[in-house]
Amino acid sequence: MFKLGMINSAWEQTGQPLVWGLEKTKQLGFDTVDIFLDPTEKGSAPKVRQIVSTCKRLKLPIKSVCCCALGIADFNPSVREFHVARVKKYLDMTKTFGAHNLLLVLGEYMWQQEVIPPKAQWDWAVEACRELGAYAKKKKLEIALELEPFKLSLLRDMGEMVHFLDECGQPQVKANIDISHMVLSKTPPSALRALKGRAAHVHISDCDGKVHGDLPPGRGVVDFIPYLKEIGVTGVGSGVVSLELEYSPDPAKIEDWVKEAYDSTRKLMAAAGI
């Protein structure tokens, strides 16, 4: 059976302290939490300590850390080196949290795939992820690559995800399953069978079927049950389905927004038998 978690960034619009959001996550009934925090930002060290102590007090395990490294396939070697070094710091923080994986977003092709050959950018990303996968292995962590359903994303559909994992050849580097992203990329639930044993984490949210939404399940058009059933047999390393929510249209009602998502997702997971 899977546990139900959420990414803590849903609370950012409240203006409340970080601890407040973690406490609300626990109060609403979530089993785990994912952390969105940049360890390279000024003042991050005390936040890391605060998160560790708070989650220990709340008995709220951290399962994943979210990282966007959009310059990892930049044409400047110095920029690529910076992003690899930055992601390693994220992996260090992930280990400090006692988490399972680092959720990694690789970014997009530059200049409409003109000027710089797309193959070169792809190869730079593969090279970086090989290095990061080796580093993650030393830390006994996994990296979960995000499929982003945008026109120029490096990993925009299941075919590209599987191809990338094959070329990377690092067992620690796996896929993140984002259900709404699969819908937006016109990827059927059956495609998840290609990720059997190669998925590290799961994100769940709804959308209108046309644009990125990160809505509470039930507010869009996603038919979740077939995807959740496939996830149940795919083999996901973290054993967690994490809610990824964008901002509530009414910040004053963010708690209602998150609770609605929690309740609807629990029902969907139960209906899918996971």
Description:
The protein has helices at residues 18-27, 44-58, 77-97, 118-139, 158-168, 179-184, 224-234, 254-271, and strands at residues 3-7, 32-35, 62-68, 101-105, 142-146, 173-178, 199-204, 240-243. It is an alpha/beta fold. The protein has a single domain (3-271), classed as Divalent-metal-dependent TIM barrel enzymes (TIM Barrel, Alpha-Beta Barrel), CATH 3.20.20.150. Helix 6 (179-184) links the parallel strand 6 and strand 7 (199-204). The protein starts with a strand and ends with a helix. The mean pLDDT is 95.
Q: Would you summarize the structure shown here?
A:
With 274 residues, the protein is α/β, with parallel strands linked by helices. It has helices at residues 18-27, 44-58, 77-97, 118-139, 158-168, 179-184, 224-234, 254-271; strands at 3-7, 32-35, 62-68, 101-105, 142-146, 173-178, 199-204, 240-243. It contains 8 helices and 8 strands.
Shape: globular
Continuous helix count: 8
Low-confidence stretches: none
SSE order, as H and E? EHEHEHEHEHEHEHEH
User: How large is the share of residues in beta strands?
Assistant: 15-25%
How do the strands line up in the largest sheet? Answer: 1-2-3-4-5-6-7-8
CATH class: Alpha Beta
According to CATH, the homologous superfamily is Divalent-metal-dependent TIM barrel enzymes
Averaged pLDDT = 95
The CATH level-2 architecture is identified as: Alpha-Beta Barrel
Report helical residue fraction: 40-55%
